[in-house]
# Entry
Amino acid sequence: MRRSLKSWIDARFPLSSFVKNELTDYPTPRNLNYWWNFGFLAGFVLVLQIATGVFLAMHYKPAAAEAFNSVQHIMRDVNYGWLIRYLHSTGASAFFAVIFIHMARTLYYGSYRAPRELMWWSGQVLLIMLMATAFMGYLLPWGQMSYWGAQVITSLFGATPLIGDHIVTWLRGDFSVGDATLTRFFALHYLFPFLIIAVVILHMVALHTVKSSNPSGITLHDKDNIPFHPYFTIKDLYGLGLFLIVFCGCVFFIPEFFIEPENNIPANPLHTPAHIVPEWYFLPFYAILRSIPDKLGGVVAMAMSIIIFALMPFLDRCKVPGGACFRPVFRAMFYFFMADVILLGYIGAQPPNATLTIVGEVATFFYFAIFALLPFTSYWENRMLLQKEKLPVAALTLIREESVIRVDKKGQGAQKGEDTP
Amino acid sequence: MNGGRACLIMVLLLAVIGGANASALPLADVSIATNAEAIRRGADTVVTVCMNCHNLNYVKFRDLLDVGVSHDSLDLWKGDKDLNAPLIGSTPADMALEIFGVIPPDLSLITAARAHGGRYVYSLLVGFYVDGSGNTDNHVFPGIKMPDVLGYTFASDNNEHQAIEQSAGDVAAFLVWAADPNAGLRKKIGIAVIIYLIILTTLLSFWKRRIWKGVSKRSSHGT
# Structure
């Protein structure tokens, strides 16, 4: 019965072959480390956010007069409503944490390079969609920080030359953030996750075309790939367990940590909070916005600070495999960049003052300078390491063993053959 | 090597997030009780004193049963109101506005709406002082319109001060409970969840090791 059903379906839909080729037997590099778990975790958090979000939407009321009350209704009257809400509010932070680590891994190991540019760019689109979704979701509790955050961020679009004011009104559906803004943000906050799923599918199709990169950065031979199941199903499950311990620790013991105290005051259009701060995951970009004295310039710099990641495949001209692990200069730049982002995040959280503004300007300069320097340092690295054969022995051995990439221009070790030497 | 650096980054990130929540207010360094006894005593003070002016819109009389307030006290406090009625104070908003010049804030979420909310409420209640010109002011909230309801500035000896501090602590305990009545249940479930997850993850780690036993990870593939 089961077999005949299976063959009935397979005659009409490639179910068995899909499961075999893309899930169970999908070839995966055996040397992936735990940094490669975060893509799966991002998928898990996406599903978690959609599941909890649907249940929240059953009890939430997207109207200015009722939104704040309905959140308290969820927290107090709905059975385990507090759990669903804290899973969702903490889940937003977890989503960004996981995505930032996923991106940092891609940068560190140079996974954005050929042939994975489309993965990197679809990921970039996903990041921007995630940011939009999180921003709109943050308005929904209709607290003071929700309201004023939305007011500040939508007003940024006013910097657009000529039609700025019209765009702001069009976004808000009113002259200032109000009931119309709340209802449309709710509608879009519910829509966007499904668009994200669509782009995630593109991201996965691209992944299954080019296959996973790996810490060595070298395209591995078949002998070094192992089937996804059971090796990576169990590894992902183990990683999920570790993630859930941290995540549930936050949800059950410090959920308020991720909610600004100010947001427990209902939105009041007549009273601006002393200090408007975005959520932690926007802080570095917010600091860049504030460090440019000109409004339009600040908005452009902030947008650029996110979009500039898309240029990475062009900026990095080094052919040395393995991203940062075999590239001392790139590695130093990577850690410097991470430190710079954290510094910007700190500055974004503080009320502006003269010293911090200068530090913020310097940090913003370095943020972009790293990207601007990359073409030159990576070219130099290429010359020093590849052409002068200064690669570490480990990398050379590996390249020889896999013998699938060109070691230098003279053709030594180039595209030799199928099997091990 | 990577792990160490990742930890460092995480610690720095947490420091950044922590920095965002730093408070500059002169809050007393007390720990707010979470036991039902203190919450009940606090409920008494809040209903009989604070609710002369303040509301607790999101708390219902029925909710007070959860912390063990007796039906007798509840009947006394709610009068002829319904058990499901919210805790609404006895001064209407417009009258309060006329008397104080401001509408007293709703107290249901007051401890959640301030950094270190419990300590904030405690420090505010015992933060009253009489300045040189004989006016009463508050260390935590300069220019506050609320009078010194617990009478901290009138207390003459240490015993009286201690009694008021105790009472302020109870009020803070009650308001912390009122802001998140499910916090106790949440932490109880949380402990079970974490224990379950640790056992599950340990088993998964054994299972993972078993499945991966035959797979060599050559050092040349290094990271």
Q: What stands out?
A: Residues 404-421 of chain A have pLDDT under 50 and may be disordered. The first helix of chain A runs from residue 2 to 10.
